[in-house]
Specification:
- Helices cover 38% and strands 13% of the residues.
- A 4-stranded parallel beta sheet has the order 2-1-3-4.
- Strand 1, helix 1 and strand 2 form a beta-alpha-beta unit.
Length: 157
């Protein structure tokens, strides 16, 4: 069976997109669907390539049982548009950057991650980088909501 490949994207790949990758992976595993998905994350900018997720992201995620420690930041590559079935941005700015870089034949793969949420009432995952701990908890709330919706949508019989 072919796996559905999902790439989560934010600016630096140290806060929102690694959180999305970790939460989505955890929920996919808990649902017994690991064999159905390929999951990764990347940033539109290369500021933090090779670095682990932001310590605050890892700390807040760990409080909810998510381990982000094995992840390392990377920048979106041209090949990602071909290799991934879905390329999901955390906000409109990053979606615009993806649209500008994406070949026309792959633009149908692009979207906002929060389009899959049902409870959060936001179309974006806000960047917590310059704020306090509440921002990281809010990211987790939104990512959990959107992850559940995406799994429900993509679940194969």
């Amino acid at each position: 069976m072919a796996k559905t490949s999902v790439l989560f994207v934010c600016m630096g790949n140290i806060c929102r997109s690694p959180t999305a990758e970790g939460v989505f992976r955890h929920r996919v595993e808990a649902a017994g669907l690991s064999d159905q998905f390929r999951i990764d994350s990347a940033g539109t900018h290369g500021y933090h390539v090779g670095e682990p997720p932001d310590a605050r992201s890892m700390e807040h995620a760990a409080r909810r049982g998510y381990d982000l420690s094995a992840q390392r930041a990377r920048k979106v590559a041209a090949s990602d548009f071909e290799e991934f079935d879905l390329v999901l941005a955390m906000d409109h700015d990053n979606l615009s950057l993806l649209e500008a870089a994406c070949p026309p034949q792959h633009r149908h793969k692009l979207g906002l991650f929060m389009a899959h949420a049902s409870r959060s009432g936001s179309d974006v995952v806000p960047d917590p980088y310059y704020g306090g701990g509440r921002g990281f908890d809010l990211v987790l709330d939104y990512v959990e909501d959107a992850s559940d919706g995406l799994i429900k949508q993509l679940r194969k019989p």
